[in-house]
Protein backbone atom coordinates (compact mmCIF):
# COMPACT_ATOMS: atom_id res chain seq x y z
CA UNK A 1 0.00 0.00 0.00
CA UNK A 2 1.32 3.43 -0.94
CA UNK A 3 1.37 5.99 1.86
CA UNK A 4 2.58 9.50 2.56
CA UNK A 5 5.95 9.29 4.33
CA UNK A 6 6.86 13.00 4.30
CA UNK A 7 5.05 16.33 4.02
CA UNK A 8 7.19 19.43 3.50
CA UNK A 9 6.21 23.05 3.03
CA UNK A 10 8.63 25.74 1.80
CA UNK A 11 7.25 29.06 3.08
CA UNK A 12 9.95 31.08 1.28
CA UNK A 13 10.75 30.12 -2.30
CA UNK A 14 14.29 28.69 -2.41
CA UNK A 15 14.73 28.50 1.37
CA UNK A 16 14.66 25.52 3.72
CA UNK A 17 11.58 23.38 4.09
CA UNK A 18 9.39 22.76 7.14
CA UNK A 19 8.40 19.15 7.87
CA UNK A 20 4.76 18.60 8.81
CA UNK A 21 3.02 15.70 10.52
CA UNK A 22 -0.37 16.75 9.19
CA UNK A 23 -1.70 19.76 7.37
CA UNK A 24 -4.57 21.24 5.40
CA UNK A 25 -4.07 21.21 1.65
CA UNK A 26 -5.39 24.38 0.03
CA UNK A 27 -5.81 25.11 -3.66
CA UNK A 28 -2.32 26.69 -3.51
CA UNK A 29 -0.74 23.71 -1.72
CA UNK A 30 0.49 23.03 1.81
CA UNK A 31 0.32 25.81 4.44
CA UNK A 32 2.32 28.91 3.40
CA UNK A 33 4.10 26.98 0.63
CA UNK A 34 6.03 29.49 -1.51
CA UNK A 35 3.91 32.31 -0.09
CA UNK A 36 7.08 34.39 0.28
CA UNK A 37 9.88 35.12 -2.15
CA UNK A 38 13.28 36.81 -1.93
CA UNK A 39 13.83 39.38 -4.67
CA UNK A 40 16.53 41.81 -5.72
CA UNK A 41 16.03 45.56 -5.73
CA UNK A 42 14.67 45.16 -9.26
CA UNK A 43 11.96 42.77 -8.06
CA UNK A 44 13.40 39.72 -9.82
CA UNK A 45 13.32 36.57 -7.69
CA UNK A 46 16.49 35.18 -6.16
CA UNK A 47 17.21 31.47 -6.71
CA UNK A 48 19.62 28.89 -5.38
CA UNK A 49 21.03 28.75 -8.90
CA UNK A 50 22.91 31.98 -8.11
CA UNK A 51 22.41 32.25 -4.34
CA UNK A 52 22.79 28.71 -2.96
CA UNK A 53 22.94 30.05 0.61
CA UNK A 54 19.17 30.48 0.41
CA UNK A 55 19.04 26.76 1.26
CA UNK A 56 20.19 27.31 4.86
CA UNK A 57 17.71 30.09 5.64
CA UNK A 58 15.05 28.52 7.86
CA UNK A 59 11.64 30.17 7.98
CA UNK A 60 9.15 29.58 10.78
CA UNK A 61 5.60 30.88 10.58
CA UNK A 62 3.84 31.17 13.94
CA UNK A 63 0.79 28.90 14.38
CA UNK A 64 -1.54 31.88 14.01
CA UNK A 65 0.11 32.84 10.72
CA UNK A 66 0.83 36.37 11.94
CA UNK A 67 4.61 36.32 12.43
CA UNK A 68 7.60 35.01 10.47
CA UNK A 69 11.02 34.22 11.96
CA UNK A 70 14.12 33.66 9.82
CA UNK A 71 17.33 32.01 11.00
CA UNK A 72 20.58 30.82 9.42
CA UNK A 73 23.88 29.40 10.71
CA UNK A 74 26.14 32.19 11.89
CA UNK A 75 23.53 34.86 11.22
CA UNK A 76 21.24 34.62 14.24
CA UNK A 77 17.58 35.27 13.57
CA UNK A 78 15.11 38.01 12.81
CA UNK A 79 11.37 38.04 13.44
CA UNK A 80 8.62 40.34 12.22
CA UNK A 81 4.89 40.54 11.76
CA UNK A 82 3.61 39.35 8.38
CA UNK A 83 2.30 42.27 6.32
CA UNK A 84 -0.69 41.49 4.09
CA UNK A 85 -2.02 45.04 3.74
CA UNK A 86 0.73 47.40 2.54
CA UNK A 87 1.14 48.71 -0.99
CA UNK A 88 1.85 46.16 -3.69
CA UNK A 89 5.05 46.19 -5.72
CA UNK A 90 5.95 44.61 -9.02
CA UNK A 91 7.94 41.37 -8.87
CA UNK A 92 9.10 38.96 -11.54
CA UNK A 93 9.27 35.16 -11.56
CA UNK A 94 10.78 33.48 -14.64
CA UNK A 95 10.00 36.58 -16.66
CA UNK A 96 6.33 36.64 -15.63
CA UNK A 97 5.00 39.71 -13.76
CA UNK A 98 3.29 39.36 -10.37
CA UNK A 99 2.58 41.49 -7.34
CA UNK A 100 4.12 41.21 -3.89
CA UNK A 101 3.83 42.89 -0.50
CA UNK A 102 7.21 43.99 0.85
CA UNK A 103 7.87 42.66 4.36
CA UNK A 104 9.93 45.58 5.58
CA UNK A 105 13.42 46.72 6.44
CA UNK A 106 14.24 44.18 9.16
CA UNK A 107 13.72 41.27 6.77
CA UNK A 108 15.49 43.08 3.92
CA UNK A 109 18.54 43.99 6.00
CA UNK A 110 18.95 40.49 7.44
CA UNK A 111 18.54 38.77 4.05
CA UNK A 112 20.93 41.19 2.36
CA UNK A 113 23.59 40.38 4.95
CA UNK A 114 23.12 36.61 4.71
CA UNK A 115 23.10 36.54 0.90
CA UNK A 116 25.73 39.22 0.36
CA UNK A 117 23.48 41.14 -2.04
CA UNK A 118 20.71 43.74 -1.58
CA UNK A 119 17.52 41.73 -1.12
CA UNK A 120 13.88 42.18 -0.15
CA UNK A 121 11.24 39.73 1.04
CA UNK A 122 7.77 39.83 -0.49
CA UNK A 123 4.56 37.94 0.19
CA UNK A 124 1.79 37.03 -2.23
CA UNK A 125 -1.13 39.45 -1.76
CA UNK A 126 -4.52 38.10 -0.68
CA UNK A 127 -5.91 38.75 -4.17
CA UNK A 128 -3.15 36.68 -5.83
CA UNK A 129 -5.04 34.72 -8.51
CA UNK A 130 -2.31 33.00 -10.47
CA UNK A 131 -3.39 30.24 -12.84
CA UNK A 132 -0.80 27.52 -13.47
CA UNK A 133 -0.72 25.44 -16.62
CA UNK A 134 -0.54 21.69 -17.10
CA UNK A 135 -2.67 18.66 -17.93
CA UNK A 136 -4.92 19.75 -15.06
CA UNK A 137 -4.46 23.49 -14.41
CA UNK A 138 -4.44 24.91 -10.90
CA UNK A 139 -2.97 27.71 -8.84
CA UNK A 140 -0.01 28.31 -6.55
CA UNK A 141 1.89 31.02 -4.73
CA UNK A 142 5.42 31.69 -5.98
CA UNK A 143 6.14 28.03 -6.82
CA UNK A 144 7.87 27.40 -10.15
CA UNK A 145 4.57 26.11 -11.49
CA UNK A 146 2.01 23.81 -9.84
CA UNK A 147 1.02 23.75 -6.19
CA UNK A 148 2.33 20.31 -5.20
CA UNK A 149 5.52 18.48 -6.11
CA UNK A 150 5.50 14.70 -5.51
CA UNK A 151 8.31 12.12 -5.61
CA UNK A 152 8.24 8.48 -4.54
CA UNK A 153 10.97 6.85 -2.49
CA UNK A 154 11.39 4.17 -5.16
CA UNK A 155 12.21 6.86 -7.72
CA UNK A 156 15.01 8.20 -5.52
CA UNK A 157 16.20 4.66 -4.67
CA UNK A 158 16.65 3.92 -8.37
CA UNK A 159 18.71 7.07 -8.87
CA UNK A 160 20.88 6.24 -5.86
CA UNK A 161 21.44 2.72 -7.17
CA UNK A 162 22.73 4.20 -10.43
CA UNK A 163 24.95 6.62 -8.54
CA UNK A 164 26.38 3.75 -6.46
CA UNK A 165 27.09 1.70 -9.60
CA UNK A 166 29.13 4.64 -10.88
CA UNK A 167 31.03 4.93 -7.59
CA UNK A 168 29.08 7.91 -6.31
CA UNK A 169 27.43 8.68 -2.98
CA UNK A 170 23.67 8.52 -2.45
CA UNK A 171 21.70 11.75 -2.38
CA UNK A 172 18.98 12.69 0.11
CA UNK A 173 15.43 13.49 -0.96
CA UNK A 174 16.01 17.11 0.10
CA UNK A 175 18.00 17.71 -3.10
CA UNK A 176 14.70 17.63 -5.01
CA UNK A 177 12.57 19.70 -2.58
CA UNK A 178 9.29 17.75 -2.86
CA UNK A 179 6.11 18.59 -0.96
CA UNK A 180 4.89 15.00 -0.68
CA UNK A 181 7.06 11.89 -0.55
CA UNK A 182 5.29 8.59 -1.22
CA UNK A 183 6.46 5.24 0.10
CA UNK A 184 5.25 1.74 -0.69
CA UNK A 185 5.53 1.72 -4.47
CA UNK A 186 8.03 -0.91 -5.58
CA UNK A 187 8.16 0.41 -9.15
CA UNK A 188 9.89 3.79 -9.68
CA UNK A 189 8.38 6.77 -11.54
CA UNK A 190 4.78 5.79 -10.87
CA UNK A 191 4.11 9.42 -9.93
CA UNK A 192 4.69 10.20 -13.62
CA UNK A 193 1.72 8.02 -14.57
CA UNK A 194 -0.75 9.10 -11.91
CA UNK A 195 -3.50 11.31 -13.30
CA UNK A 196 -5.72 11.60 -10.23
CA UNK A 197 -5.17 10.64 -6.60
CA UNK A 198 -6.81 11.01 -3.19
CA UNK A 199 -4.89 11.54 0.05
CA UNK A 200 -6.87 11.99 3.24
CA UNK A 201 -9.97 13.84 2.06
CA UNK A 202 -8.04 15.91 -0.50
CA UNK A 203 -7.67 15.18 -4.20
CA UNK A 204 -4.90 16.04 -6.64
CA UNK A 205 -4.63 15.98 -10.41
CA UNK A 206 -1.54 15.58 -12.57
CA UNK A 207 -0.19 18.77 -14.11
CA UNK A 208 3.24 17.99 -15.59
CA UNK A 209 6.56 16.23 -15.10
CA UNK A 210 9.08 18.09 -12.96
CA UNK A 211 11.95 19.32 -15.13
CA UNK A 212 15.09 19.58 -13.03
CA UNK A 213 17.64 22.38 -12.90
CA UNK A 214 20.92 23.27 -11.18
CA UNK A 215 19.21 23.63 -7.78
CA UNK A 216 19.44 19.83 -7.48
CA UNK A 217 23.23 20.24 -7.35
CA UNK A 218 23.08 22.36 -4.18
CA UNK A 219 23.66 20.61 -0.85
CA UNK A 220 20.54 21.69 1.04
CA UNK A 221 22.18 21.20 4.44
CA UNK A 222 25.18 23.47 3.78
CA UNK A 223 24.04 25.82 1.02
CA UNK A 224 27.08 24.89 -1.08
CA UNK A 225 27.15 23.86 -4.72
CA UNK A 226 28.00 20.16 -4.90
CA UNK A 227 27.51 19.21 -8.57
CA UNK A 228 27.62 17.63 -11.12
CA UNK A 229 25.24 15.09 -9.61
CA UNK A 230 22.41 14.30 -9.89
CA UNK A 231 21.96 16.01 -13.25
CA UNK A 232 24.84 14.16 -14.91
CA UNK A 233 23.35 10.75 -14.14
CA UNK A 234 19.72 11.76 -14.65
CA UNK A 235 20.53 13.12 -18.09
CA UNK A 236 21.49 9.62 -19.18
CA UNK A 237 18.13 8.01 -18.50
CA UNK A 238 15.47 10.55 -17.50
CA UNK A 239 14.94 12.75 -20.54
CA UNK A 240 11.44 14.16 -20.88
CA UNK A 241 9.45 14.36 -24.10
CA UNK A 242 10.64 17.94 -24.67
CA UNK A 243 14.26 17.15 -23.85
CA UNK A 244 14.56 18.34 -20.25
CA UNK A 245 15.80 16.15 -17.41
CA UNK A 246 12.74 15.03 -15.39
CA UNK A 247 12.41 13.66 -11.87
CA UNK A 248 9.13 13.70 -9.94
CA UNK A 249 5.82 15.22 -10.97
CA UNK A 250 3.77 18.35 -10.32
CA UNK A 251 0.13 18.23 -9.27
CA UNK A 252 -2.75 20.66 -8.96
CA UNK A 253 -5.15 20.54 -6.03
CA UNK A 254 -8.57 19.55 -7.35
CA UNK A 255 -10.21 19.27 -3.92
CA UNK A 256 -8.75 20.90 -0.80
CA UNK A 257 -8.76 18.85 2.38
CA UNK A 258 -6.71 17.46 5.24
CA UNK A 259 -3.80 15.05 4.95
CA UNK A 260 -1.19 13.52 7.24
CA UNK A 261 1.94 11.43 7.21
CA UNK A 262 0.78 7.81 7.11
CA UNK A 263 -2.28 8.49 4.96
CA UNK A 264 -2.95 6.05 2.16
CA UNK A 265 -2.38 7.28 -1.39
CA UNK A 266 -5.37 6.11 -3.43
CA UNK A 267 -4.79 6.48 -7.18
CA UNK A 268 -8.10 6.95 -8.96
CA UNK A 269 -6.73 7.55 -12.46
CA UNK A 270 -3.67 6.29 -14.32
CA UNK A 271 -2.10 7.13 -17.65
CA UNK A 272 -2.52 3.64 -19.11
CA UNK A 273 -3.35 0.48 -17.15
CA UNK A 274 -2.70 0.35 -13.40
CA UNK A 275 0.67 -1.14 -12.40
CA UNK A 276 0.70 -4.91 -12.56
CA UNK A 277 -2.04 -5.20 -15.14
Task: Provide a descriptive summary of the structure in words.
This protein is mainly beta and 277 residues long. 13% of the residues lie in helices and 37% in strands. It contains four helices and 20 strands. Strands 3-1-13-12-18-15-14-20 form an eight-stranded mixed beta sheet. The protein has a five-stranded mixed beta sheet with strand order 2-5-11-10-9. A three-stranded antiparallel beta sheet has the order 6-7-8, with helices on one face.
Keywords, separated by commas or semicolons:
single chain, 277 residues, mainly beta, eight-stranded mixed sheet
List the SSEs and their pairings.
Elements: E1 3-9, E2 12-13, E3 18-20, E4 22-25, E5 36-39, E6 58-61, E7 67-72, E8 76-81, E9 88-93, E10 96-102, H1 105-115, E11 120-123, E12 148-152, H2 153-165, E13 180-183, H3 190-193, E14 194-199, E15 202-211, E16 218-219, E17 224-225, H4 231-237, E18 246-255, E19 257-260, E20 265-270
Parallel strand pairs: 2-5, 12-13
Antiparallel strand pairs: 1-3, 1-13, 4-19, 5-11, 6-7, 7-8, 9-10, 10-11, 12-18, 14-15, 14-20, 15-18, 16-17
In short:
With 277 residues, the protein is mainly β.
Residue-averaged pLDDT:
97
Shape estimate: globular
Report strand %.
35-45%
* Oligomeric state of the chains present here: single chain
| Radius of gyration, taken over Cα atoms and rounded to an integer in Å | 18 Å
Structural class: mainly beta
Strand order of the largest sheet: 3-1-13-12-18-15-14-20
Helical content band: 10-25%
Number of alpha- plus pi-helical segments? 4
Helix-strand topology string: EEEEEEEEEEHEEHEHEEEEHEEE
- How widely separated are the two ends? 16 Å
How many strands? 20
Low-confidence stretches: none
Q: Major beta sheet, specifics?
A: 8 strands, mixed
